[in-house]
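Quick one:
INPUT:
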């Protein structure tokens, strides 16, 4: 490439650098690549659903932006380390087992020290020492594969705690300089954020499962258990009449039998409703409207309630949002069956109207007895647990949930903001 210079100061008229300063130009380009790699890694951390996929992306970005031959990202769980992201190494399903063998043989693991001290460790010419050490023999074929020389271990630290380590294996002739090490620190921060986000999501799902189990336990206690207890008492009364020689006469026995039959039917309906709530939603690949229609048919088959579903043109929704909207519909219909004494209900799903663009509207209306208390209270909502659950699901997405009287019966309305960005995610 020919570089033209000015007569005044000998600088390139396009970039302003000294003529022939190819090294500075290359450094700038490497810096740009590193910044771009950090940005792409940050995007991957925000969007990827799988932690291993995210950390594989981070590892590849480190390799592509620097003179690094291989990268490993290890996560620590319960005192054990496992590889959750890598680039440049051949696949080895038994890597963890081989690593444990090396530890037992007395191999010095610098990345473990980096994790424990939460400090970056740089070891020049590390490959020769590893391959010459018999304690590393179980991993010699794997570690000897890539062409590398020096080694850097950077701990993954988030909110003051170490969650893993990033290992970088530098190509021969490349020394870990300050700029490269700063870049590794930035990429390690992205990896740490990904691990932390995965942990938070796992805890959130666990808490949701615990909450759901508690709600189902409350439902069982408030409905099925009490009805079965009443059936037991009626059965004892019937037994007493039989033992007394049918002292109450056929009419008395018939009345007890009729009450037993009604209690059994109610208990069966409640159990079927709980089973429907536990059934997998299978939203992926079907869409929210299709899943709601299937549930409406199940409710009709189990309880006799006629449920009409009116669905407009819905955008492609994130799976988690579709799941929450489905659960709101499910809970609302459950309350209709249990409390409203209704013969029919209508579920509406649409993008709102011209007055409120950018909103997704979900309504469940019934023709039942209506609310027994002011709108927004816990009336008819499983002792308040169902209403709280529906409201939390709507508010999780920045939306609102209202429960009020309709022209006849009750209306549950959820409004969720849906932007084009959310719909495409």
């Amino acid at each position: 490439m020919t570089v033209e210079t000015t007569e005044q100061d000998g600088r390139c008229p396009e970039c302003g650098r000294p003529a022939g300063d190819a090294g500075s130009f290359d450094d700038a380009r490497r810096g740009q690549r590193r910044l771009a790699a950090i940005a792409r890694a940050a995007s991957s951390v925000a969007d990827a659903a799988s932690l291993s996929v995210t950390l594989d992306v981070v590892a590849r970005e480190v390799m592509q932006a620097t003179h690094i031959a291989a990268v490993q990202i290890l996560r620590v769980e319960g005192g054990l380390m496992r590889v959750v992201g890598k680039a440049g190494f051949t696949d080895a399903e038994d890597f963890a087992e081989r690593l444990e063998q090396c530890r037992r043989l007395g191999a010095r693991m610098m990345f473990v020290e980096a994790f424990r001290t939460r400090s970056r460790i740089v070891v020049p010419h590390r490959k020769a020492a590893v391959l010459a050490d018999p304690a590393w023999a179980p991993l010699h074929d794997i570690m000897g594969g890539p062409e590398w020389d020096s080694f850097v271990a950077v701990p993954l630290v988030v909110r003051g705690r170490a969650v893993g380590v990033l290992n970088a294996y530098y190509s021969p002739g490349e020394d870990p300089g300050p700029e490269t090490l700063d870049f590794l620190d930035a990429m390690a921060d992205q990896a740490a954020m990904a691990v932390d986000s995965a942990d938070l999501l796992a805890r959130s799902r666990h808490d949701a499962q615990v909450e759901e189990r508690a709600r189902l336990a409350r439902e069982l206690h408030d409905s099925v258990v009490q009805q079965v207890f009443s059936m037991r008492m009626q059965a004892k009364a019937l037994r007493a009449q039989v033992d007394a020689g049918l002292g109450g006469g056929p009419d008395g026995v018939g009345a007890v039998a009729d009450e037993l039959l009604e209690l059994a039917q109610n208990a069966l309906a409640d159990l079927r409703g709980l089973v429907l709530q536990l059934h997998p939603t299978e939203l992926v690949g079907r869409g929210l409207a299709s899943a709601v229609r299937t549930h409406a048919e199940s409710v009709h088959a189990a309880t006799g309630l006629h449920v009409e579903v009116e669905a407009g043109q819905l955008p492609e929704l994130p799976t988690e949002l579709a799941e929450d909207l489905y659960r709101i519909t499910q809970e609302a219909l459950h309350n209709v069956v249990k409390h409203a004494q209704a013969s029919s209900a209508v579920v509406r799903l649409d993008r709102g109207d011209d007055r409120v663009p950018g909103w997704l509207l979900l309504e469940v209306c019934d023709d039942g007895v209506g609310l027994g208390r002011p709108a927004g209270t816990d009336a008819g909502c499983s002792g308040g647990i169902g209403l709280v659950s529906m409201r939390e699901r709507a508010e999780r997405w920045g939306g609102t949930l209202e429960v009020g009287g309709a022209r006849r019966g009750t209306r549950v309305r959820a409004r969720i903001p849906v932007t084009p960005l959310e719909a495409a995610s």
